[in-house]
Amino acid sequence: MRILVVEDDLEAQRYLVNGLKESGHVVDDAADGDTGLTLALSRPYDVAVVDRMLPKLDGLKLVEEMREHGNSIPVLFLSALSEVDDRVKGLKSGGDDYLTKPYAFVELLARIDALMRRRSPATVKTRLQVGDLELDLLTRAANRGVTPIDLQPREFRLLEYLMRHAGQVVTRTMLLESVWEYHFDPQTNVIDVHISRLRAKIDKGFETPLLHTIRGAGYMIRARN
Amino acid sequence: MRATSFRIPRLLRSQAFRILLIYLVLFAVSAVALIAFSYWNTRRALDAQTDQTIEAEITGLSEQYQRLGLRGLVDVIISRSIHGDHGLYLLTDAVHRPLAGNLDGWPQVQSHSGHFIEFDYERRYGSETERRRARGRAFALTGGFQLLVARDVHERYETVRLFTTTLPWTVALMVLLGLIGGGFVSRNMLSRLDSINRTSEDIIQGDLSRRVPTTRSNDEFDVLASNLNRMLDRNERLMKGMREVTDSVAHDLRSPLNRLRNRLESALAHSEGDNAEQMQGAIEETDHLIATFNALLLIAEAEAGAAREAMEPMTLAPVVEGVAELYAPLAEEKGIKLAVKPGGPAPIEGNKSLVSQALANLVDNAIKYTPEGGEVTLAASETPGGVELCVADTGSGIPVEDRSRVMERFVRLEASRNSPGTGLGLSLVAAVARLHDAVFTLDDNKPGLRATLRFPVRRPRAAPAE
């Protein structure tokens, strides 16, 4: 995948670029808004990672101009600014996701993966399948093989999100933001408890576990180890 | 514009009107006193003059009687009765049978003052008669004769009567005019004060750009308004400055923290065994530092009122449901019953994200400090005094003397020092409460802790300037 990184903090930029390259992505970088905009408009990227505060052209303006030029690639904002209304401003200007510095690299990587996945919605899916676990989005029914699984509405949404990102790492913060729509970190890790309850419903008593914990990162649902 | 029915009692309650009313009463009382005093003085002077004349005449007449006898006195009285202008005379025998004079008979006395009497008599103008007031003195002559000498005081009497009948009307008219004038003055003052109040309300609600309107009259209100406006300009600058400081503190601390975390992460990727464990520990410490820093920044922002702009009408019921749902599995795992007490929608003006976070902090705490088998109850309810958000547990509670202390930053009671957390959970709740003009209290749940946020009744947003 081709990723554009626009970041003026050179050390952070180097780290980001190296990390993404190590993960198998092709990365271009820019250290100011103008260069970033020129690159974004001249080359095809799958995702752009844009710092919120940039010299020459501010991150918000950069994305606004990209959108005005009809460029619709997913944008992940990185921001060292205070959070309360900055997230809203970032998303309003045309950003697709927002991550506050300092961030864990796995968090960034998981979000980039999620953004790229969102970019290619082949068809509108009404059924999700991972291994022998099936989720019918119309009838709201879940089955593992021939066994029906009884899910609470929130558990259904949690499983749906995990299955839509099957094979990808999904972080706790991503779950909290997407499934619960909360943008804060609870003092206790409540997500882990929700996951273990879900795991008890979909994996307990079956031979192959589907819902995996990725140490230091989050969770992943996948058919094979 | 407000309805008149609302305006009038408000007008009467206004300070300007009250002051005016006091002045009016003082003025009326002093005017009445002044008029009464000058009237009384004038009347006394006039009476004294009349009395002196009468005394002189009596002295003269009794001398005549002594010198010329009854015959002579009668002559003098007859002559004075005809020629005198205001003089009234009557000479009678011992049983008040008239012998001479211009009065028909001994009069009915109306009032006494010393030796002097006042009475009514009838004066003839051709065939017409008129009842008039006279003041005089009766004098006993030797031989049992009675002499009455009096002067007509009808003019003075009429003046007095006129005075006493018109005075109440005059005062009433004065009070009425004063009230009307006062009403106008106070209404004018009230409308100026209203505009100041409306502006203040808007600013409290978060619109820092509002200013008090001024007129061209350059009066005290304009001076007040322009002083307030200058103060508001300065406030706005300070708030803006504060926000810029928060932003740059955030930026200047987050960037190096970011680099630090990056370096630790890449160091972890290239280390093994014990070293890796050390690196993992360092990353965890960094994350704790970041969490504390984020919480502090959020508190600072909430206290600077920066989030006020993101306030909107919302209801607490779904927030309570959501947070309860988020924490339900955790509570169940700990063997705690987490219940939501049914209540109304509980509408407030608020920042949904911050209120959710504050509630989550309270629930988190409640679950943390409630032993197995305990209960945590969430409730949002509408009360006459506002909207209440309450989290009650059956845990160990907080001693009375520590309750206000735990809302301060970084204060953690000894018992909880080893539990995870930044020590900023309750401070954030307190900051969110202040942002919402809500009152945050911690009470004894007997046993346990009851944390309550009391939001004020939602005010309708002030209308834009007229």
Report how far the terminal alpha carbons of chain A are from each other.
24 Å
Return the CATH architecture of the largest domain in chain A: 3-Layer(aba) Sandwich
**SSE succession of chain A:** EHEHEHEHEHEEEEHEHHEE
Described by the principal axes of the CA atoms, the overall outline of chain B is rod-shaped
Number of helices of chain B: 8
Tell me the name of the CATH homologous superfamily of the largest domain in chain A: Response regulator
The average pLDDT of chain B is 82
Largest sheet of chain B: 6 strands, antiparallel
Distance between the termini of chain B: 9 Å
Counting copies of identical and different chains, the oligomeric state is heterodimer
Name the overall outline of chain A: elongated
Number of strands of chain A: 12
- Most extensive interface between two protein chains, with residue counts: A-B, 35 and 51 residues
CATH topology of the largest domain in chain A: Rossmann fold
CATH topology of the largest domain in chain B: Beta-Lactamase
Number of helices of chain A: 8
Protein model, in words:
The complex is a heterodimer of chains A (225) and B (466). Chain A is built from eight helices and twelve strands. Chain A is α/β, with parallel strands linked by helices. In chain A, the strands form three sheets. Chain A has a five-stranded parallel β-sheet with strand order 2-1-3-4-5, with helices on both faces. A four-stranded antiparallel β-sheet of chain A has the order 6-7-8-9, with helices on one face. Chain A has a three-stranded antiparallel β-sheet with strand order 10-12-11. In chain A, β4, α4 and β5 form a beta-alpha-beta unit. The longest helix of chain A has 15 residues. The radius of gyration of chain A is 19 Å and the shape is elongated. Chain B has three domains: 146 residues, Beta-Lactamase, CATH 3.30.450; 75 residues; 145 residues, Heat Shock Protein 90 (2-Layer Sandwich). In chain B, a hairpin with a 2-residue loop joins β3 and β4. The N terminus and C terminus of chain B are likely disordered. A six-stranded antiparallel β-sheet of chain B has the order 2-1-6-5-4-3. Chain B has a five-stranded mixed β-sheet with strand order 8-10-11-13-12. A two-stranded antiparallel ribbon of chain B has the order 7-9. By secondary structure, chain B is of the alpha+beta class. Chain B contains eight helices and 13 strands. At the A-B interface, α1 and α8 of A face α4, α5, α6 and α7 of B.
